[in-house]
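Structure (tokenized):
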């Protein structure tokens, strides 16, 4: 555990010293603020405030945010030759990967907590549903962890950060849009079974239809946990392969 914490502490320090991290948080909060102002103005008391406004929007934007947060985690270490040096330290690949992942997830958690200010502002113009708010924020937190873990796979595959970011964004976007593919497949008589599989594989089936509506199901939580563990396992195996080749 101390080895994981050592990697975690190093990566968190890098995040909060990086101008890119601050640029991401500034751009995100500015974007959320502009849309929130438009949302409140249009609502104008005509319908109840949506407590899931900020987490729903944040999860949609994760196909851009997650690759930016993870593209350097392993790719930069590989390109600069420091990965091999780090691998000589008394820690295994799993501890190394988990420490880096937890640092990225922590930074994302800070962004998510900052967005709570919009929920607090909504309480000034109405009484938001607390159950929906809790489900949306819990779902957004798990969703963020899952897509960060997925994006880390590509950082382990290539030394080029731009390529890692592009492939990560494409993968997350495909999983986000899986629901639409399932709808199309359901219209094909011979593809009904495949439609259900594709739908359950997608991210929105476990967030947009349930958690973001305040419906907390064990299967959705298990889905995100399994995705995180599976993605970290794949990333660890990829890093182990690099060590073996070195």
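Design, position by position:
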């Amino acid at each position: 555990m101390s080895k994981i914490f050592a990697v975690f502490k190093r990566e968190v320090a890098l995040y909060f010293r990086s101008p890119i991290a601050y640029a991401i948080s500034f751009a995100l909060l500015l974007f959320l603020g502009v849309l929130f102002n438009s949302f409140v103005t249009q609502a104008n008391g005509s319908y109840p405030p949506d407590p899931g406004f900020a987490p729903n929007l944040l999860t949609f934007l994760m196909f851009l945010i997650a690759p930016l947060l993870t593209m350097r985690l392993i790719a930069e270490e590989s390109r600069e030759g420091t990965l091999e040096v780090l691998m000589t330290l008394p820690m295994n690949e799993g501890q190394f990967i988990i420490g880096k992942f937890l640092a990225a997830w922590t930074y994302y958690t800070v962004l998510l907590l900052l967005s709570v200010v919009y929920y607090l502002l909504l309480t000034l113009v109405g009484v938001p549903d607390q159950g929906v708010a809790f489900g949306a924020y819990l779902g957004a937190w798990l969703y963020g962890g899952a897509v960060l873990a997925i994006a880390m796979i590509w950082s382990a595959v290539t030394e080029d950060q731009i390529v890692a970011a592009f492939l990560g964004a494409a993968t997350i976007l495909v999983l986000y849009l899986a629901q639409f593919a399932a709808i199309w497949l359901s219209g094909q008589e011979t593809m009904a079974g495949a439609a259900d599989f594709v739908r359950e594989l997608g991210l929105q089936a476990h967030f947009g239809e349930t958690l973001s509506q305040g419906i907390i199901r064990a299967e959705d939580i298990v889905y995100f946990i399994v995705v995180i563990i599976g993605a970290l396992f794949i990333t660890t195996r990829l890093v182990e392969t690099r060590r073996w080749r070195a």
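Reviewer-requested clarification: The chain has one domain: 2-245. Residues 2-245 form one domain.
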